[in-house]
Amino acid sequence: MRDYSKNELEARLAGREKRVGYFNTVQQLHQAGMSISTISRKLAMNRSTVRRYAYAESFPERVQRPTGRSMLTPYLAYLENRYQQGCRNAQQLWRELGQQGYPGAHNQIAKWLSRRRNEDAPMTQKQAVTNSPAPHQPSFDLPTTQQLAWLMVRPVSLLEEADRQILSYVCQDSIIDQVYGLVRDFGAMIRTRQAELLDDWLVRCQICPAVLLQQFGVRLQQDYAAVRAALATPWSNGQTKGQVTRLKLIKRQMYGRAKLDLLRQRVIYRC
After folding, report:
1. Mean per-residue pLDDT for 175-192?
2. 23, 40: one domain
3. Cβ pair 151, 143 in contact under 8 A
4. pTM, whole model, 2 decimals?
5. Cα–Cα distances in Å, from 150 out to 186, 188, 190, 214, 231?
6. Does 15 score more than 90 pLDDT?
7. For tag attachment on the chain, is the N or C end more exposed, with fewer CB atoms within 10 Å?
8. Would you say residue 131 lies in a domain?
9. Are residues 242 and 224 part of one domain?
10. 215 and 157 both lie in a single domain
11. Is residue 65 part of a domain?
């Protein structure tokens, strides 16, 4: 059977409630003596659906069709083995399967990895309840994801007491606590220009369970020299980017129809 996300489950539940409402209405109208055709016109429903609802003894549930075999099926045993070894990087798993002949895209492996982590979540929650006291319910409203992200990237010295309480509450989750520690250390490393801490931070990033942070660390590693130079030197290419943006703005004002000589004159004239 297919595993559905939270949003998909909510949408399916809302759809079922809507169909149940139609079913009850059809039953009431039919018992009142209204014909199938009249009910169909009144509710703007297909007559076959109205007929099925009218003569059904109970609400007809939709039958879940079993999921067929996919191109990922032959590699599931290998994926499970790598997952048990601690690999949570979808890109890495995709590269390894590609060497074994897997023809599919990276997003299929990412979906499998997401479902696999969700399977572990109930067990983790059960163990947490068994081994530790239940966390107290907060006396404040929890922030949205964007608000929480903003709190995490702010320096600790600028946080208010209410913000610290929120972070303390959400960091009861071990994964969020690791993510917050990496985000906090990364911000401090940039603000204080401590390039010598970059290597250790990248290692911690790769063993973090959060896949997005793992991917972020991989991208930093791919451009390692430039990232380290940005931390170690006071120089910035902000002026260059500003001039390029200004040049593009002037070109757009001329709809790209000016030759180089006219563009040069406009750039110099505006200096």
Report:
1. 91
2. yes
3. yes
4. 0.43
5. 14, 15, 16, 20, 22
6. no
7. C
8. no
9. no
10. yes
11. no
Residues 50 and 36: beta-carbon distance below 8 Å: yes
The candidate with the shortest Cα–Cα distance to 206, out of 178, 225, 184, is 178
Q: How many domains does the chain have?
A: 4
| Residue 64 resides in a domain | no
Q: How confident is the model at residue 26 (pLDDT cuts 50, 70, 90)?
A: very high
CATH value at residue 42: 1.10.10
Contact 220, 202 (CB under 8 A): yes
Domain membership of residue 37 as a residue range: 6-55
265, 213: one domain: no
Six-digit token string for 205 = 């990033």
Phi, psi angle pair for 166, to nearest 5°: -65, -45
Token pair for 127: 């163990």
Q: How far apart are the first and last CA of the chain?
A: 65
Contact 89, 215 (CB under 8 A): yes
CB 202 within 8 A of CB 217: yes
- Say if CB 182 and CB 201 are below 8 A apart: yes
Please name the residues in contact with 20: beta carbons below 8 A apart, sequence gap of 6 or more. Answer: 59
Residue 266, in any domain of the structure = yes
Q: Please identify which residue in the block is written with the tokens 């002026």.
A: 239
Helix (H, G, I), strand (E, B) or coil at 269: helix
* Cβ 83 vs Cβ 116: under 8 Å: yes
